[in-house]
Write a structure and sequence with these properties.
Blueprint: E1 2-5, E2 8-15, E3 22-26, H1 37-43, E4 48-52, H2 69-82, E5 88-93, H3 95-106, E6 111-117, H4 128-141, H5 144-154, H6 157-162, H7 164-176, H8 179-188, E7 205-210, H9 218-227, E8 232-236, H10 243-246, H11 248-260
Helix pairs in contact: 1-11, 2-3, 4-8, 5-7
């Protein structure tokens, strides 16, 4: 389904039973709602799920130009308003986790809980050139040269060898990501710097990370956990960046246990 909010057409899906608590799922860079299929299937009996494509991704509009995390948080705020959702659990992975932190600080009181998976609350200054290089590559050559290195960061080698269908599904999502959307988000993400403000977030927080995540490693998850009083931390063994796909059972069990608690 599509609706126009904050100046763009946003694609979203609703799953589960009406009247159940809302759960919002927000995906990684260069992915779409399809990244969440295992969690949607597992949790739709207990929750009313809103999965949406971030600005510049999937079937959501991809305006040219640099995006900001505030802008991406505003997109979600106006989508929730349009759907008359006043309170929801939130689970975001990677970029989705950065949007979640930004949203929770900008719009306190909306999230009942906040799950931050394979993400960070800040990047070191030396990360900026890496992001700039990705933008240059995408704008010069499209998404194809970015696909394989991304998959190697996102999944461990044993998983890539044993699960070619899952990996190929994500490869297709990367290749289908509009260059303008990828570049726009690559301008936003490295600027995140909310570690010192995490203590302002009043809802319960769960931090999940794959033990083998090279992109947002466990050290970044520990930093969020250490700076968010009362938060819980779950490290999933044998998982890299897309921990929800590499260890779907463990990821969903951690999420379900947290939401139910």
């Amino acid at each position: 389904m599509k609706t126009r909010v904050n100046g763009i057409d946003v694609n979203y899906e609703l799953h589960g039973k009406e009247g159940a608590p809302w759960l919002v799922l927000s995906h990684s860079l260069a992915c779409s709602v399809r990244m969440w299929d295992p969690q949607i299937a597992a949790l739709k009996d207990s929750y009313r799920i809103l999965a949406y494509d971030t600005r510049g991704h999937g079937a959501t509009e991809a305006p040219k130009g640099a995006y900001t995390l505030d802008l991406l948080a505003d997109d979600l705020f106006f989508l929730l308003k349009e759907l008359k959702i006043t309170s929801a659990h939130y689970c975001g992975l990677s970029m989705g986790g950065m949007i979640g932190q930004t949203f929770a600080l900008k719009y306190p009181g909306v999230f009942r809980t906040l799950t931050l998976a394979d993400t960070t609350s800040r990047y070191p200054a030396e990360a900026a050139p890496v992001w700039a290089d990705r933008v240059k590559t995408a704008e010069a050559k499209g998404m194809e040269p970015l696909a394989q290195p991304t998959l190697e960061r996102w999944f461990t080698e044993p998983f890539r060898k044993a699960n070619p269908a899952v990996v190929d599904g994500i490869r297709k999502l990367i290749l289908a990501t509009p260059v303008a959307g990828y570049a726009g988000c690559c301008h936003a993400l490295p600027k995140i710097n909310v570690t010192a403000r995490l203590k302002e977030i009043k809802c319960p927080i769960l931090v999940i990370v794959g033990a083998d995540d090279p992109g947002t490693p466990p050290a970044m998850a520990h930093e969020i956990h250490d700076n968010a009083p009362g938060s819980k931390l779950v490290v999933l063994p044998q998982a890299a960046h897309l921990a929800n796909l590499e260890q779907p059972a463990g990821f969903t069990k951690a999420l379900r246990g947290f939401l139910g608690g």
